[in-house]
Amino acid sequence: MNKFTLAALAATSTTALTALAALYGDTPNATHAWSVHDMNRPRPKVIQAEPGKPPSDAIVLFDGVSVDAWCMGRNENEPCKWNVVDGAMEVTRGTGEIRTKQSFGDCQLHIEWAAPAKVEGGGQGRGNSGIFLMGQHEVQVLDCYDNETYADGQTGSIYAETPPLVNACRKPGEFQSYDIIFHQPIWEGNVMKFPGSLSVFHNGVLIQDHWELEGTATHMTRRPLKNKYAEKLPLRIQDHGNPVRFRNIWIREIPSRYANTTHGGPGVKEADVMALRKETAALLEKKVKWDAPNTFETLRQAMEVLSYEKTEARMEPFIKLAQAYLEGLAKLDAEALKNKKDEIITLRNDTNVLIRNGVFADTCKLRAGLQKIIDEQGFEKKR
């Protein structure tokens, strides 16, 4: 279970845990630690995403000036030998591929590239390079503007596996963009649970739609993935002998599809879900003041706790409080009940949520008592 989740919950304000406490959407279950629309669920981190700039949480790999983030592919101690020309990093023929000094796993990668303006060669010999995620899986870079080649080697293909959905190439010499979402294969021991996937946008157009990987980069043959590799490896860019230029390269590390074990998704684990629900219930229970004069708020807080983890120890004081609340309502006249109309209906609705989700039985006495008052007083009668 993600410890950050609990830390974030613990840091949530008292206002969010009490004044906004309510039973609204479906409650937690065996595969979801949070309710639908749960106000207790930790919010995403805030980042800055300004037009034309890398997101504030991105790692800039090339800013148009420095190649310090890169080294030659065969030797991490050998500085990058590719030239920087007019704010772009250009393949220097014969020097070999380059790779990042830092290693990455699942990621969002933005990279801009341009094939040579002077058209030379054809097919695979024209503006050829490649971007290798974790050094294993290639997204093809190629000038396919009015250039015929095999489909699984076109611009934006997962090389030797699958063609792009469309050819979105611009003219030679014009800069183009790739936005790539990569998820690495997931293994459980020696068994592969998920083969990994690639989604690619070329010049803003979706050309690879969550393609599940068949293997590692190859040429002429198929190379199924048989063995697990490291969880993080360098990003590589190929020297294919053509002076392709690259600029504005940044990367964001993103969670594995299987990192979330507490709320839906393919990696969910019931034990982790129940552990987080237990922790959340305990944290929320500290806010419940059983002797508070506002029985309405206390009942709502208690029911929220019960939605995460129902125990006999919690049900006992809740039942006593609910009984006392109904007894108090029974002593009120019609006008006083009318003044409490909204809270009575709210509590009835809360109990309905818990009954709908199997937390309370359909015979819940609190719901029955509240519904009787609502019916007798005509609170929901259409005018």
Write up what this structure looks like:
With 383 residues, this protein is α+β, with helices and mostly antiparallel strands. The protein has 2 domains: 3-44 and 270-377, no CATH class; 64-253, Jelly Rolls, CATH 2.60.120. Helix content is 25%, strand content 22%. The protein has 8 helices and 16 strands. The strands form 3 sheets. Strands 1, 4, 5, 7, 10, 13, 14 and 16 form an 8-stranded antiparallel β-sheet that branches. It has a 6-stranded antiparallel β-sheet with strand order 3-2-6-15-8-9, with no helix packed on it. It has a two-stranded antiparallel sheet with strand order 11-12. α4 (295-308) runs parallel beside α7. The protein is elongated, with a radius of gyration of 29 Å. It starts with a helix and ends in a 6-residue tail after the last helix. Mean pLDDT is 92; it is low at 3-21.
How are the secondary structure elements laid out?
Blueprint: H1 3-11, H2 14-17, E1 59-62, E2 70-72, E3 75-79, E4 83-85, E5 88-90, E6 98-104, E7 107-114, E8 129-133, E9 137-141, E10 176-183, E11 186-188, E12 191-194, E13 197-202, E14 205-212, E15 233-237, E16 245-253, H3 270-285, H4 295-308, H5 312-330, H6 334-339, H7 341-356, H8 365-377
Helix pairs in contact: 3-4, 4-5, 4-7, 5-8, 7-8
